[in-house]
Amino acid sequence: QIPAGAVRSSQPFRRYGVGDRVLICNHAARWSNLVNRHGFPDGQGDASLDERGGPHIYALATVTRIHFGENQQYYTVQRADPGGEQRADAEWMEPIRTARGEAAAPQ
């Protein structure tokens, strides 16, 4: 079930490397520390830069493996919250655009 307000990546699909810090759309968990597509938790970020806006449906993660499936490339990521490892598809991932956003994302 895709949460209300969730949209696929705003960028054309990009490739990520092992060790890249990313934001993954967190479809299932309501208990983790979620952030918006800029990396900011609810109530944080610069309002003039649209960093405060939701939806807050992303979790911080690090790419640990790259897989090459029959039809697409996908990733295994280690979430920064207690969610552990999971599969991530590029269409539901966002790069962290600023150092401020990465610092603000809950660990």
Mean of pLDDT? 80
C-alpha end-to-end distance: 25 Å
The structure class reads mainly beta
What is the rounded Rg?
13 Å
Q: Find the count of extended strands (DSSP E, 2+ residues).
A: 5
Question: Strand count, sense and closure of the main sheet?
Answer: 5 strands, antiparallel
Strand content: 25-35%
**What order do the strands of the largest sheet run in, or round the barrel if closed?**
4-3-2-1-5
Element string (H = helix, E = strand): EEEEEH
Helix content: under 10%
What's the overall geometry? globular
Count of discrete alpha- or pi-helical segments spanning 4 or more residues = 1
Unreliable segments of 5+ consecutive residues: none
Describe the model.
The chain has 107 residues and is mostly beta strands. It has 1 helix and 5 strands. A 5-stranded antiparallel sheet has the order 4-3-2-1-5, with no helix packed on it. The longest helix is centred in the C-terminal third of the chain and has 6 residues. The mean pLDDT is 80.
Describe the protein's topology:
Blueprint: E1 21-25, E2 58-68, E3 73-79, E4 85-89, E5 93-95, H1 99-104
